[in-house]
Amino acid sequence: MSTPLPSFAASAAYGDAPGPVLVEPETRRLDGVVREAYVPPLAPPVRHGSLADLPFDNAAAVPGAVVLSRRSADGRWADVTAAEFAAQVQAVAKGLMAEGLVPGDRLAVMARTTYEWTLLDFAAWAAGLVTVPVYPTSSLFQIRWILQDSGAVALVTETVAQAAALGPELDRLPDLTRLWVIEKDHVERLAEAGAAVPDAEVGVRRGMLGPDTLATLVYTSGTTGRPKGCALTHGNFFAEVDNAIELLYPVFKAKGEEPSILLFLPMSHVFGRMVAVACVRARVRLGHAPSLKPADLLPDLAAFRPTCLLTIPYMLEKVYNSARAKAETGGRSSTFDRAAATAVRYGEALEARQTGTGGGPGRGLRTARACYDPLVYRKIRAAMGGRVRHVICGGSPLGRRLAAFYAGAGIEIYEGYGLTETTAAATVTPPLKPRLGTVGWPLPGTRVRIAGDGEILVAGGQVLHGYWDPGAGGVVPAAPDGWFATGDLGALDDEGYLTITGRKKELLITAGGKSVAPAPLENWLRAHPLISQCLVLGDRRPYVSALITLDTEGVTHWRRMNGKHPVPPELLVDDPELRAVLQRAVDEANKLVSRPESIRRFTVLPRDFTEWEGHLTPSMKLRRETILRDFAQAVEGLYAG
Predict the structure, then answer these.
(1) Residue 618: CB atoms within 10 Å
(2) How far apart are CA 12 and CA 618, in angstroms?
(3) Confidence check: pLDDT of 20 > 70
(4) Where do runs of H (alpha helix) occur along 183-233?
(5) pLDDT value at position 139?
(6) What pTM was computed for the model?
(7) Res. 16: pLDDT tops 60
(8) Which parts of 330-373 fold into alpha helices (H)?
(9) Rounded distance, CA 633 to CA 631, Å?
(10) What is d(CA 175, CA 182) in angstroms, rounded to the nearest whole number?
């Protein structure tokens, strides 16, 4: 059995206070600059047991507690108790064993964010297997590569179409001997197939596992070449989730209401998997939403009514821009803008009070916020289900202004930073002590160091043991000295808060020798309601420029509000009024940087970057080399003459 989490009463980190006593980071300086920050762990390390034990631990401790909710075909949510979930995990694990899968075998899962994903994860672990997530949107080449490289012996797809599309590749996958389809009820059939396997056999398999046992191979999104399989252990997940649960106590241990999380980010990404495990570990009601389309997601949010959401900045930007567009359509844009400005000031005042640099919102600001709450803020919260008070946000920087807006609107943002190699978060915003525009402190138990060239290095229990390399016989160490080089650039302030400044491999060096980090400019412009994506370029060029794509919904709204004829957005790329709006956005972004780093020219592309065409990874990161190749003519046009 796994080591239990400390309770509120038993944990040394908690006294009579409503949450943990935050421990300030220990910092080390070099030449007067903070180069390293460390936060001691809040949770003890797990010395024995595995993730496979969690459903059974829950069933033994609180059999009737609701730990998940399962969405039925008619859209209703049915609660699943700890005892019921453990029984389902046991049954499916026995089915996998009956099918001949042995400890250490790799089971690949290619599905959207569904209840079955989490069930298969825990069932596979209970059977001693290693799970391998595959994005449903991956190309056939990417799917084949992951299945070949991982040596997966079995694959579960969500749909018949996914299984059929893989048909021509099966001859190249000799290790893959079993294929199951969720929509054909094969998970239920697995449970039936294992009926003859004694329950004790699952106990034997679980007993073979420990914190150092491989739990999953998660393949990186591959922005710069072929994806690599990150070998994450059960201990990596425990180090991550146990400290996150203790630190983010308002999310996982809320008093006075039942905490719940609706997960809609891909389960194929480590971010979503980590939060699913954390919910099971902390017994927080977990739901799964397979579609990000507003027509599908909004009803799920309204029916499930989560207290916390897991998201990326792109979605928070879309929520804000959609709310602003709706207000403008109704002739209330000035009201929305005043409400937004009030929320930003209120969020910044809260930050000042919590960090000891100010007295908090004054009477006038509190009155203004109260007036705008029913007009604007409550509607934004209602769109998220009505009960959301917390959002865990990662993947890319959110930006200070938007973070302050949501804080002022009554939604606390926990912004974090991490990679697949760090089992998701390496840093996170501490409760009640935000530093807007940063990605917080090191997660408890984690060290963050800034190398001489600005690269972020991470050490801690959640850092992967290595990369999967079947040619080398298994796992090849990724951080032999204990420090993992992230490839990202950043800086630590005097109090240990981390700011991300760019990506090392994406650093541009202009012909004049100026180093330019494109991320701050790209993130700022991407938040504009008319802009979908932005790629800043200028490596070995005389100046910095940008490729911009249009947001279809935003441009359609702009066209209607400005009396333009109903034409597709791609026909508006040369519209002088639209370009004037975009130029103002570029001018605002340029205020973030010095003149040599500023965008001198930009071009609007007639189509968006898509994952389908290889321009974006499944986690919405830019594949720069592919974009520059496919839009080479537009790039050269930026430097012609």
Answers:
(1) 17
(2) 41
(3) no
(4) 186-193, 199-207
(5) 82
(6) 0.86
(7) no
(8) 333-354, 363-372
(9) 6
(10) 21
